[in-house]
Structure to design on (87 residues):
């Protein structure tokens, strides 16, 4: 079963490829998605990694580690909450 991982406090110039390389040493990475601001298109400093294998090992190994001069926050992603419509 795949593990969806939240990765916070990423450097703003980080690429999906760099995050994939970081996590791939711990298992098979299925998907990397970095979140951008809707209005400006600029990175928000966090994203999600989905791993087919090695997810828990990656969380244990990478949480609180330095990456690009910043201390990463890595944990299992929580399910997305329902939001009420913005009108």
């Amino acid at each position: 079963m795949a593990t969806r991982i939240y990765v916070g406090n990423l450097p703003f110039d980080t690429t999906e490829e760099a995050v994939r390389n970081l996590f791939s040493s711990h298992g098979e990475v299925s998907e990397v998605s970095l979140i951008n601001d809707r209005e400006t298109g600029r990175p928000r400093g966090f994203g999600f990694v989905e791993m087919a294998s090695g997810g828990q090992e990656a969380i244990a190994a990478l949480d609180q580690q330095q990456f690009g001069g910043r201390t990463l926050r890595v944990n299992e992603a929580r399910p997305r909450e329902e939001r009420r419509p913005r009108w």
Notes: Residues 16-24 form the longest helix (9 residues). The domain at 3-45+54-76 is CATH 3.30.70.330 (Alpha-Beta Plaits).
